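Today's session is about reading a structure prediction critically. Students often jump straight to the picture, but the first step is always the sequence itself: look for stretches that repeat, for charged clusters, for runs of hydrophobic residues. Only then move on to the predicted structure, which in these notes is written as discrete structure tokens rather than atom positions. Here is the chain we will use throughout the hour.
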Amino acid sequence: MSLGPFRSNIKMSFLAYVYVCKGQLRQAEQLCRKALDYGEQSLPSMFALTILSLVEYERNNLDTASKKANQALELNNIWQNNPISIMTNIYSSMIHQALGERLEATKAGDRSDQACRSNCSPEEVARNVGCHLAVALAQDDKAAISKWGSKVSEYARILPPEVAHMPYRLLIAQGEKEQAAEQMKAAYDQMAADGYYPLVKINLTRALAAPNPDAALPLLAEALKLGEPEGYVRTFVDEGKLIKPLLKRAVPLGIMPEYAGKLLSIIQAEEHQRHAKKCKIISSSASIFGLLSKRELEVMQLIEKGFSDRQIADKLVISLSTAKTHVHHIFSKLNVKDRLQAVNRAKDLQTK
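Below is the predicted structure for this chain, in token form.
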């Protein structure tokens, strides 16, 4: 079989990634779909599906994004391509986080970490680190932010374009907005000149680092101007808590009002969903509140989500031995022998 079409489709898939880096999602999507014409079981298809999952994620088509990522991971069982596996799994982690599937997000991130341990470049590790930090920030997980933030600082010089803004975003999370603004001002002109960075993300991060709303709005306006024709959604929505007040100001001022209003509506809808889910968890815990301590209830909720002892320890920022002790006490109080029995017993109590 001729290698010509194969090489051509690999080139198209790589060029699609370049377009994503430049913020040109429409061109990226078109090239990915052309590459998929080569054959559903091909290596170019695996790469194209991975890039397409990122495009669909950015456009907030989360179910489609998850499907594309899963298709790419299935192909990896055939091709065993470690660099693409890292990329697919870490993008999958971001997708699951946006879907509210935190356990699945953790599992995908763990798979990416495992792939990073063998035969990968520093740039691939840097992508993994940058995306991990993005997920940690979305979860407002302080322990994870600290862990991945230190690694982002280590890999700052070689971060791929789609996560090149993360060192500045980390500074904002740490309350160092002025430092972030100064560093971004110094780097922005070069990034714009290179033409290899998603300036919608860079401008949005500059807006978040601005000292006041009046200084932030022109930067937000530029981000919206760049993002609207390409269908950007998650870049804005993932910053819901920080960007919501600016969007509320932008709409009445006529700054891309339809687009800004759409983003604001999505942010508010996701906030409502999270609140409803939290209330449901609190309500379902009420019937066993008198049986378990507050910390044990937190551990029980993580057990119900499938977390291991190690994952519980990491999530609650406690030692592994302390996590195991809490689990042991829960089993004893519920009079059960394992996790499955504990979950079933908790459900029984919650229905009484």
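Discussion point for the tutorial: The chain has a mean pLDDT of 91.
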